[in-house]
Amino acid sequence: MLKMRKKLKVAILGTGNIGTDLLIKILRSDYLECSYFVGRNFLSKGMSKAINLGVRVSDKSIEFLKSNPKLYDLVFDATTASEHIKHAIIFKEFNKIVIDLTPAKVGKLCVPSVNLSEVIHFNNINTITCGGQASIPLAFVLGKVHPNTEYIEVISAIASKSAGPGTRANLDEYVETTEAGIIQFSKCQKAKVMLILNPAIPCIDMQTTIQATIKDPNMDLITFEINKMVANIQKYVPGYHLLVPPTYEGGRLIITVKVKGLGDYLPSYAGNLDIINCAAIAIAEEFSKAKLK
Asked: What pTM value is reported for the model?
């Protein structure tokens, strides 16, 4: 008789698009169990979905998690950057692990394909941004191959319909946090980040282009390392694909990737939401493996 694997009890704070898609992913995880789905409105689409799936819910938001700390070991914060700054203080008080899906930049920055093994020693983990998850692994490769990389520019284009109120409220933090992540992981001297909300119908898939100023790049080594990194990312983000391989022209190195979502709760064009949720799941499962082994 097979022994059932013990799962880490997690809660989701925030019942919008990101939180609800995250819930679907957790329900099929071999390492995580959603103990509560927490928001502010029982009538929201996300809350209704959770109730229909038989998941326990609360409309008391952070107050519920404060009053019931024994019900969860880890919490995903899928609210906003400004809210997480307040929430982080509460979770620290209760010694809870929190994975922050906002660009608040309070905790340890994490890109699973780059530094997953390092973050399990911290209680507050930041998933940076969708553009960060798409671009930072490639920027990391460029910095590793060419430590003298001068400048990296990242332009992400996403479907307007995949940018909900929370995403739009965090745009300034998105730029600041993504730029900080690129500089931290690549060691480049300067970074610039742009986000385009494309209203085209049919909706576009997320695309991210990285442009880097590098003198005399080793294209063979860069291409080899980029392909290896893409394969690593695809282990937890299956819809991540190289669209334009490393190309050098006009003094700049250019790489473009496309991210197609799994279509769990959101349309497949919402790869920007899917990639950050897939990263969050990968991080949480690593905590589960470490705590429950």
From this structure: 0.94
